[in-house]
Every structure is written in structure tokens, then in C-alpha cells.
Amino acid sequence: MSLRAAVAALVCLALLVLAARLIAGFHDGGLADLLTILAFAGGSIWCALAAWTAIPAAFLTIIAAFAAFADSQDEEEPRRRGGSVGAAAFFFLLAVGLIWLAFACANRTAEAAAPPPAAIVEPEPASEPEPEPPPPEDEPEPEPEPVAAPSPPAPTPEVFAAPVYWEYMYPLILDGDYRRSPSMITRLDRLFPLDDPDGETRALLCGKAWVAIAGAASQEGPRARNERRARLRAELALAAAGRWLDAHAAEDCPRPALVGLDLGQHAATVEAPRMDGTDTAWQRQILIVTRMAAAEEMTGADKALEEVRAFYDDPQGRAALLAGRVYSRPAHIFAPDAR
Hints:
The chain is an alpha+beta fold. The chain folds into two domains: 3-111; 158-334. The chain is 45% helix and 13% strand. The protein has helices at 3-26, 31-38, 45-68, 77-111, 182-191, 200-205, 223-247, 301-313, 315-322, and strands spanning 158-165, 172-174, 177-179, 208-217, 257-265, 285-292, 332-334. Strands 1-6-4-5-7 form a five-stranded mixed beta sheet, sandwiched between helices. A two-stranded antiparallel sheet has the order 2-3. Helix 1 (3-26) packs antiparallel against helix 3 (45-68), helix 1 (3-26) packs parallel to helix 4 (77-111) and helix 3 runs antiparallel to helix 4. It is elongated, with a radius of gyration of 29 Å. The two termini are 55 Å apart. 34% of the residues are buried.
């Protein structure tokens, strides 16, 4: 075995790894996502088939490169070397193409499963007490005591299920923290678009006393990682809302108090979920609770936290928020940190 043959094989291996990293980055992922696809957990069976087929193609690339530069005493060595180099180039392009196909297939499968937008759900108001019966006719009717005008009731919190959901593997977690990716940023921009073409974000955030945004993880995967991911999703969505409010601070949009709702991991309610996570996407949907501000009302962070806790502790409010979802523990309610 000659040194140049070994160097050629190592160069091919490095080029294959570099190409795989570039393809993964282009599709908003990393090499860890390729392992997810190989494990039949990142898309359909065709995505995994493309990824598995890329492995022998890469192996043949390295063998052909090694053979092209191996020592030989054959007089026809230049002709055979040209054939081996051509074979190495062919298998290299085949392996790269199959890796590209696997990532494109996995992304297309995940994007096709977005749940339909949900409408605003309001808790039903409490029933009014029945009026007391009038006094008997033979008794003199007491004169009514003067009473102060009743204060208007506080606005009822409203629940909004956003038409945006987290992919089950995002945000990617490394050493307990998250990795920024174009896919994650795109989803947050879709949640609170800065240009706000339809005025939906303004209607959702402006004129409110407080806005609470929930983060949750679906039932797949290890509990510890999903607990961290649920908290990160709430924090990232709150930060996106804060950026939108900062960008529109000069307009008539007083800043509401922001509150986070960490719902944790969803209970295992779907039997044999799909490996691409499409049938559990509703468990990761972004849920938002808001309360309109009364005239001249300024709500501080402590009061907002208290009201959100009262809303969640009320069975009627919690049912309106979760809409049939069942999480493994009670929600953690928190004030956002600056990230």
C-alpha cells in the first residue's frame, strides 16, 4: 500500500464529510440530523433509504480513490488509474446526491404536516345568580339603600392557538442550550412577522394588559431533553414577541407584560406515533393567552404573573388553553429572561 493511495482515500473521506456538513447546514440541520434520518426518525422510509444508500456509495468512493493511486507495475497503469479516478468521481457525486435527497425528503415531509390555524377560544362566563324573590305584599317594602355604581368587570382572558408549531427536533440542544438555525428563526418570524401585513400581530399584542406564550414538547423522545426543549420554546417565542414590540414602540402600541408558560412534555396519548412527528404536531403548537387592558391600565410583571397563575389554576381557563391536550406535569409560569 503506497502513501499516496492512503492520502487519496483520506482526502475523499474528508470531502465526503465536508459535503455532508454543507448539505445539512443548507437544510437547517447538522450531521446529527443525518443519524436521525438513518434511524428512520427524520422522515419517510424513502428518506432513510436514500441515506442508507449513500453509505455504500461513499465507501466505494474511498475504495476507488485508493485504487487509483495504489502502486502497480502494470504498463497500462495510467489507463487503469484514469478509470479508477473516474469511478471515484462517479461514486462521490452519487453519495453527495443521495445525502442531498435524504435531507430534502425529510424537510419536505416535516413541512407538509402543519396543523390548520385554530380560532380564538374564550372560557364561558360564569352564570349569573338568580334574582331574589320579591318580599310578600303585606310587608312594607324597605327603602333601597344608596349604592355605588359597580365597577366594570375585568376583561376575560382569551386563548389563541397560533398556526405555527415547532418541529419535534427543534430547537437543537447542545450542552443544555440551544443552537440557532435558519429554520428556527423562520418559524419565529412567521409567528410575529415584523411587517405584519394583515395586522394580526398588532391585534394580538397591542392593547393588552399581559400576553402569556406557552412552550411544549410532544410525547416522543427522552423526558429530560424535552423538558429543556419546552422551556426553550417558551423563552424563544417570548423573545420574538419582545423584538416585535421593540420594533413598533414608536407606534400606538403600549408594551404589555410578557409571561412564559412552560407546559413540559405531553403525555403519551398517541399510540405508535409516526417517526416524522407529524401526527403529534398539535402537541407542540404555540398557544398564546392575552387579556385586554382596561382604560389607563398599566399591569406590572408581578400582577401579570398572578393573573396568569389564576387563569391556569381555574379548571375552566386551563381547559380553554389546553383544548384536550394532556401534559405530564402542571405548567411552570415564569417571567422571561433577556436572551
